[in-house]
Design brief:
The protein contains twelve helices and twelve strands. The chain is an alpha+beta fold and about 450 residues long. A hairpin with a 4-residue loop joins strand 1 and strand 2.
Length: about 450
């Protein structure tokens, strides 16, 4: 306001001065016209100067805005504005850009919403305050919620404390994956995965309905268990008959073909019995019928007694069989002795079966992470190709099917190892390469004497 008043007085003063000077010097009758023209000229000059300064300030203030809009993708020139008409042109470009951006964002939003609604999986997102900002109909259908869920807390919608706990853990930055059972009488089995969103903006929960998958797996387990039970008694009868025949034939002379035939029947019967035994063991583990009793087991004594069972077989094949307990490792572990015997027995049996004369097989107890002990079964045999390692613990998967059958393997040993180790609270892994042997590592809870 002060600046405007100052310029106004300067303009009027200049005009008055010019009028006075012209009236004093020009002939009578013409001085007033010259004074008016001079005053008008000075006034216009003052106004133009004010306009020019205001224009420069406007251009200077708009330039950073144009540059920022250019960074966002608006097609604007870098040069400063020199013509006032350019402002309108640039604003028109900005308006077109905003219109296209909003249109595209709306289309993308509709596409995302259509995808979410088409998914059978349930999807739910919460903001950093734990309020629901996105949920699809699949999630509402799975949890049986029929009202609008936006803005509500997950506990008001999901009806499951485990799902709410998973979201809260994800909000804290810890991804979660857990199986949840909803309802009673005819429950649903859900696999829930919760993950934190980027920059702490919230969390995302994705839920899969695995009820049908569980039902099919249960049918398969029941079928395998029932068939195995039905096969066990006939196989026991056949095995008993073969052993009786072998005893009878010891007292008489039989032809080479008869002896070979009887040995083949005995060998295949033993293989079938082992297969049925492993199938029943897996079925009991998967159904939860197998109860493990974990106690503290001294590893030195255990490994010595275990390898004594395989020592004669290893010597016949020309294989060195050794065991050792590392001084830094726990001398005991908390396991079910029978289950551990099956685990290490299967691993040692495989190592001897596939090793060559002159190879070495070792069972070593090593120090693991706090509260754990590592048992390694190492061999210097032919090794396993890298392509086979991801599937090595699958049931009936064989690296060399023909050789495995010739050696009497059932194809279930490593699958049984994996399930038994998991049931004892441990993990099993394998490292191998062709021509460089194989190392199976079993990590188990350490005993009290080693913790």
């Amino acid at each position: 306001m002060a600046d405007r008043r100052r310029w106004r007085w300067i303009g009027w003063g200049g005009a008055a001065l010019a009028v006075g000077m012209l009236l004093a010097t020009w002939p009578a009758g013409r001085g007033w016209m010259a004074g008016v023209l001079a005053g008008a000229g000075i006034g216009l000059g003052v106004c133009w100067e004010r306009h020019r300064r205001r224009w420069k300030r406007l251009v200077a203030n708009l330039q950073p805005i144009w540059l920022r809009l250019r960074d966002l993708g608006v097609g604007l020139p870098e040069e400063p504005i020199r013509d006032p008409r350019e402002i309108g042109t640039r604003l028109q470009r900005v308006g077109d850009f905003l219109t296209s951006t909003v249109t595209r964002m709306r289309a993308e939003s509709r596409l995302v919403r259509s995808i979410l609604e088409a998914m059978r999986e349930g999807v739910l997102a919460v903001d950093r305050d734990g309020r629901i900002v996105l949920v699809n109909s699949g999630m509402l259908r799975l949890v049986g919620f029929s009202s609008s869920a936006l803005g509500l807390a997950p506990g008001e919608v999901l009806g499951s404390g485990e799902l709410v706990d998973a979201i809260e853990a994800a909000l804290g930055g810890a991804p979660q994956s857990r199986e949840v059972v909803l309802g009673e009488g005819n429950p649903r089995v859900l696999m829930a995965n919760a993950s934190p969103l980027a920059e702490g903006e919230g969390a995302l929960l994705v839920v899969h309905d695995t009820t049908e998958t569980h039902r099919i797996h249960q049918i398969r387990r029941d079928f395998v268990a029932n068939v195995s039970h039905e096969l066990r008694n006939p196989l026991a009868t056949i095995q008993g008959a073969v052993e009786t025949l072998q005893g009878i034939w010891e007292d008489r002379t039989v032809s080479e073909d008869e002896q070979r035939l009887l040995d083949s029947v005995a060998r295949q019967t033993a293989r079938m019995s082992a297969l049925v035994r492993d199938l029943l063991g897996l079925a009991r583990l998967e159904s939860g019928q197998e109860t493990l009793h974990r106690i503290e087991v001294d590893l030195g004594d255990f490994l010595a007694s275990l390898l004594a069972v395989f020592q004669e077989r290893a010597e016949r094949k020309g294989i060195s069989l050794q065991w050792d307990v590392d001084p830094g490792a726990s001398c005991s572990c908390l396991v079910d002795p029978s289950a551990l015997h099956t685990v290490l027995g299967n691993l040692v049996d495989n190592a001897i079966r596939y090793s060559r004369p002159g190879d070495q097989v070792q069972v070593v107890a090593l120090a693991g992470p706090p509260g754990e002990v590592c048992l390694e079964v190492r061999d210097t045999g032919p090794g396993i190709g890298e392509a086979h390692l991801p599937r090595i613990f699958e049931r009936f998967y064989r690296v060399d099917p023909g050789r495995s059958r010739e050696e009497g393997g059932t194809g279930l040993g490593l699958a049984l190892v994996k399930h038994l180790v998991a049931a004892m609270g441990g993990q099993v892994s394998v490292k191998s390469s062709l021509g460089q042997g194989t190392v199976f590592t079993v990590r188990l809870p350490a005993g009290a004497s080693g913790t």
